[in-house]
């Protein structure tokens, strides 16, 4: 997981809680059970041998002369079936079983995708709440500006337009807060839909998105790609295609249709044994197109895996780069930019109250400090988004966070 979490109240939802709810309730993860039932039934069907066929026939009936009516009928009772050759039964079983074996890997891939989506939606709630905190900080400093402008107006040292401008900036900050609160409410609803909750009443655990964990080097992360479910699925797919190829090859060996029976000869009132065996010709030739197609599909699998591996490697490189870039931005904003802007804003407030600076200078520094805080938050969210992608690609959970970066003057 991306964060170190602990619930502070019964109605506080941690990321682990969200994971647990989704794993219990989301239908995507229950599909594997139903699919297994279907594939088990297909395995049972593939295990059946060709059925025995009981037959009866009558000859010399409903004719003319001695063959008129049923008096001259020769009756035959038969038992027939097909003798499968070439290992067709084992090949069918192997194909059905290989499809069952792949289910676990497919479910794990779906689980990782789903948990990544849970974390993204959880992070969206955290982001909206942090934006509301920044807006509250902005409101507090805008209120100080309004109060200072009114004092200057009453003292005759500032026009009314300055007060109105300060009040407009305060109203905009209050709008930003209201927007963030609404976004947080919508994000909670979006998160709750993953486990089917229609009217969520929970709050998420307060988190500090600026505390970014340490991650492994890119080379180490790339080595984990070989174990990712997205590539592990190719091993299962290879078994399926090999089983299809084997099944196609068995079609080149012709089956034998056999029949045995007993015939009653009406004319002599004797009984005789009836035996027949038949075999289709040209089965080897007719099986070749299916064999070539199965061989081609199997040969393509290596190329498909190479393409997928290259795509995953490229995506991992991009996500790793995004994380490092965002991490650097968060660190530099927290250690260099925001502290200086905070001190500059405080100095501008003192200068404005003393009549040594204009309102525009103070307001601009207030806006720059708020913008820097927002930029730092967005960079941290970008870093966590990249971490989620890395986690999804490698299948490795981030269970231990490193030391928090220097945050500067943060809300």
UniProtKB/TrEMBL annotation:
GO terms for molecular function: efflux transmembrane transporter activity. Signal peptide: none annotated. Pfam families: OEP. Belongs to the outer membrane factor (OMF) (TC 1.B.17) family. Coiled coil: none annotated. This is Cobalt-zinc-cadmium efflux system outer membrane protein.
């Amino acid at each position: 997981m991306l964060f170190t979490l602990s619930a502070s109240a019964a109605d506080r939802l941690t990321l682990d809680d969200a994971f647990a709810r989704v794993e219990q309730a989301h239908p995507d993860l229950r599909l594997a059970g139903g699919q297994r039932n279907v594939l088990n039934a297909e395995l049972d069907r593939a295990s059946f041998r060709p059925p025995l066929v009981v037959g009866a026939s009558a000859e010399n009936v409903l004719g003319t002369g001695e063959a008129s009516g049923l008096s001259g009928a020769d009756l035959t009772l038969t038992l027939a079936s097909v003798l499968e050759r070439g290992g067709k039964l084992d090949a069918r079983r192997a194909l059905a079983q290989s499809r069952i074996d792949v289910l676990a890997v497919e479910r794990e891939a779906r689980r990782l995708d789903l948990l990544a989506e849970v974390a993204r939606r959880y992070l969206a709630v955290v982001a909206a709440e942090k934006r509301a905190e920044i807006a509250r900080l902005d409101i507090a400093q805008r209120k100080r500006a309004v109060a200072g402008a009114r004092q200057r107006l009453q003292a005759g040292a500032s026009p009314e337009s300055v007060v109105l401008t300060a009040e407009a900036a305060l109203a905009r900050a209050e709008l930003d807060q209201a927007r963030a609160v609404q976004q947080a409410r919508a994000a909670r609803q979006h998160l709750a839909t993953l486990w089917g909750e229609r009217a969520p009443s929970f709050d998420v655990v307060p988190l500090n998105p600026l505390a970014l964990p340490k991650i492994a080097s890119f080379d180490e992360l790339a080595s984990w790609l070989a174990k990712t479910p997205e590539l592990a699925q190719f091993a299962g797919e290879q078994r399926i295609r090999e089983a299809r190829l084997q099944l196609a090859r068995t079609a080149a060996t012709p089956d034998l249709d056999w029949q045995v029976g007993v015939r009653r000869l009406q004319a002599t009132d004797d009984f005789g044994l009836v035996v027949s065996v038949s075999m289709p010709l040209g089965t080897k030739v007719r099986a070749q197109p299916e064999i070539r197609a199965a061989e081609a599909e199997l040969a393509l699998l290596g190329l498909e895996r190479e393409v997928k591996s290259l795509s995953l490697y490229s995506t991992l490189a991009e996500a790793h780069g995004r994380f490092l870039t965002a991490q650097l931005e968060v660190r530099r904003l927290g250690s260099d930019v925001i502290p200086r802007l905070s001190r500059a804003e405080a100095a501008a407030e003192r200068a404005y109250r003393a009549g040594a600076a204009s309102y525009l200078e103070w307001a601009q520094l207030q806006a720059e400090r708020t913008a820097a805080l927002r930029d730092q938050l967005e960079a941290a969210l970008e870093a966590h988004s990249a971490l989620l992608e890395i986690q999804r690609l490698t299948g490795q959970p981030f269970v231990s966070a490193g030391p928090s970066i220097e945050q500067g003057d943060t809300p």
